[in-house]
Amino acid sequence: MNGWKTRAAAGLAAWFAMVGAGVPVGAGPAETAEADTPPVVAERQQLMVRLIKATKVPRAMVKGERDHDPAAVRAAMAEVITAAAALPGLFPEGSGEGSHALPTVWDTRADFDARLAQIEPHAAALAFAADAGPDALASAFAEYIAVCDGCHAVYRKPE
């Protein structure tokens, strides 16, 4: 196992403890949500926006659009970990209406939950990889984004 992956696995419990003191998740529906959007759908859409915003930080570094900044990656991934912890509870049975979620979310719930559970360790690995330099960051980012894309390919309606 690569050094940064070993550190990620070893430090994951400490990482979650640190993130536990972070930003509260699920404070309320997104301000931009339409009036007829169910509150739980608006809340998870707001959460996804937070995930996308945080993911843009390492993406910009990998693309060479931003200087390598491990502290910024750690902060962004802390946001991802905090937000991802709330995701499973934001997909209750029957909450597909008014969202981009496909029925497969509920038809294959165990797989969906397993995929959601992969966000946190990959985000932590990405945070630790940033300390190892740009190449390690790029490698970890590819693995992290594959988790996101893999879930969306199965469980999200095409735009």
TrEMBL record:
Keywords: Signal. Pfam families: Cytochrom_C_2. One of its GO terms (biological process) is electron transport chain. PROSITE patterns: CYTCII. SUPFAM superfamilies: Cytochromes (SSF47175). Residues 1-21 form the signal peptide. It comes from the Bacteria. GO terms for molecular function: electron transfer activity; heme binding; iron ion binding. Coiled coil: none annotated. InterPro entries: Cyt_c/b562 (IPR010980), Cyt_c_II (IPR002321). This is Cytochrome c-556.
